[in-house]
Specification:
The protein is 60% helix and 4% strand. It contains nine helices and two strands; from the N terminus they run αααβααααβαα. α5 runs parallel beside α7 (133-143) and α5 (72-92) runs antiparallel to α8 (159-173). It is globular, with a radius of gyration of 18 Å. 25% of the residues are buried.
Length: 208
């Protein structure tokens, strides 16, 4: 077996089966995320950023690395913890009358709906299992009090970039809800998303 075949086999073993009940709330969440450019970019000043924990800048590359130590069910748990914090930080900077406030609040509500289904879809023991060391370290950092977080742990990111990560990693970790069987591994590829963005931009230029 070649190294490439071995890596693909490892990835296929690590990928968790997504309960069918998860797909409806995740697709509803995905619909909300499809409007993120309007609400998280156009309604903010150019280059506006918010402060988030370094672990909340959660990208496809992080999943690729963490899959070497943890199965997808563990990473799905981490995904919910990460994006719970991301949404709270976005909402916190939005005044009540900001044009994106209601969008962000609705997104958080739909996220919580999906999280509720996720918890109900698995036995309670799943959430009591010991986490791999690297995941536990991330978990501990994400749940510590903000005033105890080292300055070096903070990062600045645009709301749009944070929700891009939110969307892309959701498609990767819950790929059965969004991708055909043949495309499931591609959902975790940055090039897959770059191609999709390029096609979207070309379609918008043609329509214009």
């Amino acid at each position: 077996m070649s190294k490439v075949e071995g890596l693909l086999l490892l990835v296929s073993v690590q990928m968790a089966q997504t309960p069918a009940s998860m797909c409806t709330p995740l697709k509803t969440l995905n619909y909300s995320l499809s409007h993120r450019q309007q609400y998280m970019k156009h309604n903010f000043p150019i280059n506006y950023t918010i402060r988030v924990h370094s672990y909340e800048v959660f990208k496809l590359s992080n999943i690729s690395t963490m899959r070497l130590q943890a199965e997808d069910l563990v990473l799905q748990r981490l995904w919910f913890l990460v994006n719970q914090g991301v949404l709270k930080k976005i909402i916190r900077v939005l005044p009540e009358k900001h044009p994106s406030r209601s969008y962000a609040s609705e997104l958080e509500r739909r996220f919580k709906d999906a999280e509720g289904v996720f918890v109900q879809s698995h036995p309670a023991e799943v959430f009591q299992q010991e986490l791999p060391e690297t995941i536990q370290e991330a978990w501990d950092h994400l749940t510590e009090e903000p005033d105890r977080v080292l300055e070096s742990r903070w990062r600045f990111a645009t709301p749009k970039a944070l929700l891009d990560n939110f969307c892309h990693t959701m498609h990767c970790l819950f790929s059965e809800c969004f991708c055909s069987r043949e495309q499931q591994q591609n959902c975790c590829s940055a090039s897959y998303w770059r191609k999709g963005k390029k096609k979207k931009n070309e379609a918008e230029r043609t329509a214009g």
